[in-house]
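Dear colleague,

Thank you for sharing your sequence with our group. We've completed the structure prediction you requested, and as agreed, I am returning the results in plain text so they can be pasted directly into your records. Please verify that the sequence below matches your submission; if there's any discrepancy, let me know and we will rerun it promptly.
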Amino acid sequence: MDEIKSDVIWTVHVEVRLSTKSRRRVDVIQGLVRNFIINNYDPIQLPSILDGWQTDPTLASSVDRIAISESASPSMSLRLKEVSLEIHAYQPHEADAVEEYANGTPGRDGEENMLAASVCELPCKAWEGLWDGLIYADNIKLKLLDYIHATFVLSDADVDFNLVTWNRVVLLHGPPGTGKTSLCRALAQKLSIRLSHRYSQSRLLEINSHSLFSRWFSESGKLVQRLFTNIMEMVEDEDCFVVVLIDEVESLTAARAGAMAGTEPSDGLRVVNALLTQLDKLRHQKNVLVMSTSNLAKAIDSAFVDRADIIQYVDLPSREAIYEILRSSLCEFINKGILQETVVPPLDLALYMDKNGENRSSASNVMLPNLPKELAYTLLALADKCRELPQAQQLSGRALRRLPVLALARYIGVGVSTSSTTSNLKKSRFQTDIRLWLDAMDKVLDERAADHKKLL
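Please find the predicted structure tokens below.
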């Protein structure tokens, strides 16, 4: 890897999660965290969870966690002289959905009220760690963050919309189970933290696309308009950042071509037109982002696709992503005492060892002696096996997360009572060797391939 030039200053984001009882001013906490990092961490490892701040009484009483987060730097280790620290302090909300919108039509007897949308206050405690748990081969997550930053730069500069246009609409498409909806939620969570200095509150509004169709002719378009009227009222509060998530957007936008061909009811055409009109109104607002997902990109109306600034394909996990997904699952088992204490080599070290047969990484310049090389080789072989499956049997990220569970259920066995899996878990005979789990997951893959053939 080329040596990083010493005159380059990399922005490193630091996320400080405040405790629910914290009443300290945010700027005071940010200053204390900055001083703590400067005095105790040089170089800074990316990403990492910091420790040792608990000795400061103010931080100990106000902070739950300090995490070094993203940076555009290709290096996993940076000296302080190369770093500009961006410290984001936030206090997550305990509740999930706080408001719901129904699609019932006033005055219609017998009209069933279906959930049209739900609103969640951000950042939400339930989604802590969701961003880090999503692993992709390319830099999808940073690409989306950079896009949002670019739109704010243009908005702050008051760029003429007639000369340069952006819609703040993102479309994620790809196979089921690749984490598209989770990525939208994680991005909304991340933005609520990153933009806390600009907006005092953030919200995620998730639209239930299927609920926006009425059994009453011509009512569906009105349902869309009514919902977006509520969204516009929310966005009019300039101190609130709003992320609108349209999941399975093809169910809303696929109707127009069929309506024009006479194969779909004209009510579907009204829905699409209403949606496009409302999106055009929202694009003039600085404090809103529209995200959409689809498993059937070819069914999406071309006019909607044309309004998307980013059209991102989210593929099934690559070999490297599979390794990191399985590694994160195993590390969680180790942290919870289900697996015996073991060092599972991170991806860069595993790839280096696989290529050079050594137990060090030139990429990070960090010596890590006594790493279990055979563990890295076995996990890489398991990732290769996943990728070598026929296209129809390829595992999504969601399916990969289930592998350890199936391995436990089918080939390892719990073997302990419920009581021994709680407070005394680390002392129980349930604690197993990691190689047993790797072997069991390999068997699950074989079994899955055999079962899949029976479907054909």
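Summary note from our side: The chain has 15 helices and 15 strands.

Kind regards,
the structure core
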